[in-house]
């Protein structure tokens, strides 16, 4: 299994936002979408602030693959549904990183967004 390097984790963790593009059925990249990203240890997590109806989120459900850009990091990723038992820890990471944005933070901590929590695993 491929893992994030320390440099990649630092770059992603320090980035205010991440851009993600899903991979379509034909292997082409969809449009880039700017989203929030958090780390929990050596893992990277994202959520759809607007819940499962968001276009980029639905796009990731097709092939569970995408490409991300954050800071100086650009990487192909596998998108994996996160273990729901981790949601409280991921909530805490979002709260710590984005507490300066209380209105948006409330949405990303809501049940609709929590139901879309995904781990991003690097691909070769």
Automatic annotation (TrEMBL):
It comes from the Bacteria. Pfam families: DUF2255 (PF10012). This is DUF2255 family protein. It comes from Streptomyces chilikensis. The lineage of its organism: Bacteria, Bacillati, Actinomycetota, Actinomycetes, Kitasatosporales.
């Amino acid at each position: 299994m491929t893992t994030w390097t320390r440099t990649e984790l630092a770059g992603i963790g320090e980035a205010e936002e991440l851009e993600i593009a899903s991979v379509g059925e034909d292997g082409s990249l969809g449009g880039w979408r700017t989203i929030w990203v958090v780390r929990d240890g050596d893992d990277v997590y994202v959520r759809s602030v607007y819940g499962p109806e968001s276009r980029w989120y639905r796009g990731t459900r097709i092939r569970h693959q995408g490409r991300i850009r954050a800071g100086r990091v650009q990487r192909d990723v596998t998108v994996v549904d996160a273990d729901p038992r981790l949601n409280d820890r991921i909530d805490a990471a979002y709260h710590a990183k984005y507490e300066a944005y209380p209105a948006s933070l409330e949405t990303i901590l809501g049940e609709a967004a929590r139901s879309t929590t995904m781990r991003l695993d690097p691909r070769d």
